[in-house]
Design goal:
Helix content is about 20%, strand content about 35%. By secondary structure, the protein is an alpha+beta fold. It has two domains: about 140 residues, Rossmann fold (3-Layer(aba) Sandwich), CATH 3.40.50; about 130 residues, Tumour Suppressor Smad4, CATH 2.60.200. The strands form three sheets. The protein has a six-stranded mixed beta sheet, sandwiched between helices. Strands 7-6-17-14-9-10 form a six-stranded antiparallel beta sheet, with no helix packed on it.
């Protein structure tokens, strides 16, 4: 079986560029069509490769992410609308999302095209700003943060159309279960099993007694309105979307399509979490 394979590369890791050259050669020798985004191709010295436009990205049979979880987030953003499976190769410290190490890539590609794999689906988040900015799909989270250092931002939180409470805080995070181990974790939000469909809402340094996280159904629309006083900045999966003025609202709910991650055998999230935090058996 041959197919179309997209290769995305961490642009600041020379070892990822070297692996990209190795992977594209391996794939081409076996008759696969290889596509690489222009900026990635330039960083990896692969200028002869091209990337399809958004419409044709759905024609890929596989997307390969060469980096850490950050490169995986970028890859998922590019291809998940087309249902394209993503194989993550880990160049980070200990990736929650990636599946194999660089030395195993050729074996992993061989297993994929032999049909020896499974797909793990992860919920995404549909993030919208009522026309101020285009809608965005997130794998980890959306968050509103204060624009001015030294000041809080005031926000109103509504759940399923009803106002829940207001916050004066440094920010507010809406995360997926996958994103529960990202920014949400750093502000002591709950860790959620990644294959669930749920949203976690967690304020960041709120100036009030109610600072608890909320775990909501994925279909309960969350709306966050910026209140009078100061602007806020919207970020999605670590990327700045733009600044929101008082009266602007961000809505989040479960995305219309999942991220599809390639897995070989068991992928034990809880054991990865245990290793990440060096938890000992007692």
């Amino acid at each position: 079986m041959t197919g179309r394979v997209g290769v995305l590369v961490h642009r600041d890791k020379p070892e990822a560029a070297l692996l990209a050259k190795r992977a594209t050669a391996w794939l081409s020798e076996r008759g696969h069509e290889v596509w690489v985004p222009p900026d990635d191709a330039a960083a990896a010295g692969l200028e002869e490769w091209t990337w399809p436009d958004e419409q044709h990205a759905a024609d890929l049979d596989l997307a390969v992410s060469l980096g850490g979880d950050g490169t995986m987030l970028r890859t998922v953003d590019l291809v998940c609308a087309g249902g394209v499976p993503v194989l993550g190769v880990n160049f980070g410290h200990l990736g929650y999302l990636t599946e194999c190490e660089p030395s195993d890539l050729e074996a992993a590609l061989g297993r994929f095209f032999a049909g020896d794999f499974r797909i793990e689906e992860r919920m995404t988040l549909d993030v919208r700003t009522a026309g101020r900015y285009p809608g965005v799909i997130a794998l980890n989270e959306a968050w509103l943060e204060k624009t001015l250092p030294g000041h809080t931002v005031r926000m109103s939180l509504s759940i399923a159309g009803a106002v829940f409470t207001t916050y004066a805080a440094d920010g507010l995070i809406v995360s997926t279960p996958t994103g529960s181990t990202a920014y949400n974790l750093s502000v002591r939000g709950p860790i959620v099993s990644p294959t669930l469909r749920a949203m976690v809402v967690k304020p960041v340094s709120p100036h009030q007694l109610f600072d608890y996280a909320l775990v909501l159904d994925a279909d309960e629309e969350v709306a966050v309105e910026v209140l009078e006083g100061r602007t806020a900045t919207l970020l999605v999966d670590g990327q700045r979307v733009g600044e929101l003025e008082p009266g602007d609202t961000v809505t989040c709910r479960g995305g219309p399509y999942p991220a599809r991650l390639v897995r070989f055998g068991a992928h034990d999230f809880h054991q990865i979490l245990k290793a990440k935090f060096a938890l000992a058996d007692r």
